Amino acid sequence: MVDGSSYKESNGKPVFYVPTPDPTGIDISKNPTISLAFSEAALAERLDKKGKVCGGLDPNDPLCAQVMIVGKAVVVKDKTAVKKAEKAFGMRHPLAPWLAKGGAHTGGAYYTIEPEYITILDYYGGATEVSVKDYLSWKAPGETQHETLQYERRLRGAMK
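^ that's the sequence the OP posted. Answer follows.
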């Protein structure tokens, strides 16, 4: 799963790869409505000094933020978009180089999601719905190229 090769290239619509033999591909072809869930616990920069996520909280604790995107899975067909996804996979997932080179030897496809419904859970009391328009138009506050490069260096350092 990637959303651009940097914050600057992120558009809020993650790209994911589904190999042909995976039953998920069959499911998506029959019913393309999917849910993608992301947890703050997956962010390397959220590890504390002891290597615990979310300040030592259980990853399912509401204080460990979660985003859920519900929408339609769409095959990425545009060659430029596929090349962009491969570049992002190469940067974000260096231990799976096949993702940056057209995918699995068994075949498959890159997909993205057309969001229809988005929720964020980051506190007790239930999730908050975020409009798709607001979600897709959000930009990191004060984001500069320098800040993006600093983030990418920290990310690469965390992967070593």
